[in-house]
Structure formats: structure tokens, C-alpha cells
Amino acid sequence: MIDVIVVGAGPAGSIAALVLARAGAQVWLLEREAMPRPKLCGDTLNPGAVAALADLGLTGGPLADALALDGMLITGPQVALRARYPAGQVGRAIARGPLDAWLAEAAVAAGARLECDVRVRGPLWRDGRTGAPSVAGVLLAADDRRAIRVPAAVTIAADGRRSVLARAAKLSAHPSTPRRWAFGVYASGVRGLSTMGEMHVRRGHYIGVAPVGDGRANVCVVTGVRPAGVTPIELIARALARDPQLRERTEGWRAEGRPRVLGPLAVDCVRAGMPGLLLAGDAAGFIDPMTGDGIHLAIRGGAMAAAAALEALESGDTDRAATDLTARRAAALGTKLRFNRLMRALVGSTLALELAGVGARIAPAVLRRLVCVAGDVPSNRAESEGAA
Ligand SMILES: Cc1cc2nc3c(=O)[nH]c(=O)nc-3n(C[C@H](O)[C@H](O)[C@H](O)COP(=O)(O)OP(=O)(O)OC[C@H]3O[C@@H](n4cnc5c(N)ncnc54)[C@H](O)[C@@H]3O)c2cc1C
Q1: Ligand 1 mean position, distance from CA 8 (Å)
Q2: What is the CATH number of domain 2-43+95-174+266-346?
């Protein structure tokens, strides 16, 4: 029997597989797509994510050529402010295809076995002696619609927001509110790009812009309930054309490739696993993309799930691992997740947005501090260059 099956070769799965393989575990990393695969994302690694990768010895690769981001430009109904990260702290703008392929290669180099084009259909259930069900591996979708059973001592679900494993185990679901959708496209012809990520918060939607090299920008528009009767590209074009900050900068812009759509975005998760199954990354819950820290959370969540799996392999007690992981995630990530929920509520409330805009004008240092918290910057201060 395999020690650990990791489902999903995004950042959470590849980091979990890498940590497990380095520790000597036999690990299979199963991915339903061919790598590199596209992924709708803002394409920014925040400073915390860059530091977390460096802690794992993951420097160089495509990161070496990725544009360094030294802060964020935030604009809102009543505020426009550039917040620089403290000296020595940078994020990176990098497309997810090369980033995720590089992380998966690192897991393979550490000894993990990567299988692409393999779709996991659901958990392989084992009836516990006490009557409580537990997960004993996965079921793979076979060509002829039959399922192939692949047993493992521990299974890690790192299969993203719509995790088939977390859902089958009734650990996660989309909440009834908020229901937000994301529309993203690569764009050429966007003027005024700098070495900062951009977040333009408006009533009812927000727009993220990141420079990704070759003169192209990643543009993501996040709305409330998906508007009917409008195509994704029309929606993005209208949002840019009507935006006070972006209208002039995007005049004559062109879409490079087709737009991608995701939604509803939020996923609530009750526990980080159950006997035999551990959750990592978005599979363990997703709040909102506006804080730009999903990859950092996925890296840390992947490493934490791997540590819990290793303990379970050592002790033979796979039931306890999920309880321990849930507690450790709450201790290590709970404050940040509460901050993210607060930010999500803020951008969803017109009154709160107005008040935040006024507050940011009176005390811009507070907004700069929030940018550093969102960026997981391990420092107490943000340097600034004042209002834009
Ligand atoms: C619009 C938007 C913008 C964002 N911008 C940013 C940003 O700028 N910076 C940032 O840090 N975060 C951002 N995020 C969040 C970030 O994209 C996620 O948090 C991150 O990708 C989570 O990584 P993961 O490994 O958990 O999941 P994923 O990256 O989603 O990887 C899951 C993997 O599992 C595979 N998979 C799924 N189901 C199966 C199955 N049944 N069988 C086998 N394989 C399967 C998928 O193909 C995929 O490769 C953004 C999110 C959105 C929606």
C-alpha cells in the first residue's frame, strides 16, 4: 500500500508531496490535467509566499525571471495609495503555469511519483470498526467509467476549491453568501504598469491588475452574483472602460487569449480532515482572492498536512491526524483567516467602504499596514511614497 496519495498538483499538493518525499515517505501526486496547466489567478506571489518557498529551498527556477513586486497600489472610492513593502521584502509576478509546473517538478526531484491526466473520482471508503467511516485511499475515474481503487495509508486532498474529496466527506461547501465570481484575462496595451500589484476596489466589484512581463498585464474582475446576459470579455471590458482610474490606462487594450471564469468563489470548511483524509490549500477553505495570499496559505497548508501525515505514518494513528491538523491550522493561520474574512466583508459593504476610504485619507499608515498584513510581510512597518 502507498504511504500517502496527494490529490492535486497545485501549490498545496506539490509542497505536501515534496515535504513527504524528502522525509522518505512513498508518495503519489495525482493531477487531473497535463502540466503546465492554466489556472485563473492574479499571478502574484506575496512576500510571505516567496519567503515560505525560500524556507523550503525553493529559489531560482522561474522565480529568478519573475518581476519583483515591491508593494501594492490600492485605490477605492475616496483613496489612492501606494504602499511599499519594507526594504528587502518583495513579492513576484509569475504565471501559474510555469510556477506550478516547477513546484511539481521539485516534488518529483524529491522522490514523489507524479501522475498527470488522472482524475480522482472520490474517496475509497473503509468502514471503521467503531462504525465511523474513514478514508482508505481514492477511486480513480477509468476510461470505461469504472473506478480503479488505489489504497493508501493517508490521503491528502489538495484538489482546490471544488475538492471532490472534501465534498464527498461533507467537510466543505459553498456558503449561501457571499456569492462572488471572478473573470480574468491576460491583456496587452495596459499603460502605466509599475513594479506594484494593483487593487482597485469599487462598489459592487473590484479589479486586480498585475504586470506579468512582456508588456502584458493579468486583469481580474471580481463581481457579486454573476451578471446575466453579458459575456466574460464584455464584463471585463465594461469594468475597465467605466473605471475612473483605469479608463485612460486601458484605452485600446487587447485580450491575449480567452478569459477564464470561476465562481462561486467562497468555500467554507468545517474541519481540516477526517480519519484517513487531510485537507490542504483551497480544499481546506477559500475566503476571497482580494487579499492575494491564497498561494502562501496553500504552501503553508500543504507543509502542515504533510507533517500531520508523517506523524500518522509514524504512530499508525491516522484518526488523530485530522484533529491535530485542524487545531494546528487554527493556531497558525486563524488570525490571518479572520483578517481575510474582515476584508471580504469590508469590500462587500458600501458604507464600510466609504468609511474605510475616509479613514485611509486621514490615517494612510493604517492602510499601508493592512497591505503588509495581507502580503504576509513579516515586519511591522511599510515604507510609503504617499498618495498617488
Ligand atoms: C481570481 C483569483 C485570483 C487569485 N489571485 C491570487 C494571487 O494573485 N495570489 C495568490 O497568492 N492567490 C491568488 N488566488 C488564490 C490562489 O489561486 C489559490 O488559493 C491557490 O491556487 C490554491 O492552491 P491549491 O494548490 O490549493 O489549489 P489549486 O491551485 O486550485 O490546485 C488544485 C489542483 O487540483 C487538481 N484537481 C482538481 N480536482 C482534481 C481531481 N478530481 N483529480 C485530480 N486532480 C484534481 C486541479 O487540476 C489543480 O491542478 C486567486 C484566486 C482567484 C480565484
Answers
A1: 9
A2: 3.50.50.60
274 vs 322: CA distance, rounded Å: 5
Beta carbon of 298 within 6 Å of any ligand 1 atom: yes
Rounded to the nearest 10 degrees, what angle do helices 318-348 and 350-362 cross at?
Answer: 80
pTM of the model: 0.95
Is residue 242 exposed (0-12), middle (13-18) or buried (19+ Cβ within 10 Å)? Answer: exposed
Pick left, alpha or beta for residue 35 (phi over 0 → left; psi -120 to 50 → alpha; otherwise beta): beta
Instruction: Enter the C-alpha cell of residue 265.
Output: 468563489
Q: What is the CATH number of domain 181-262?
A: 3.30.70
**How do the domains of the chain map onto residue ranges?**
2-43+95-174+266-346, 181-262
Give the contacts of 163 (CB within 8 A, at least 6 positions apart): 8, 157, 172, 279, 282, 283
At residue 379, the pLDDT reads 60
Nearest to 104 by CA among 25, 12, 178: 12
In the prediction, which pLDDT does 385 show? 39
Substitution site in 32, 103, 139 for ligand 1 pocket (most atoms within 8 Å of beta carbon): 32
In angstroms, the CA 66 to CA 94 distance is 6
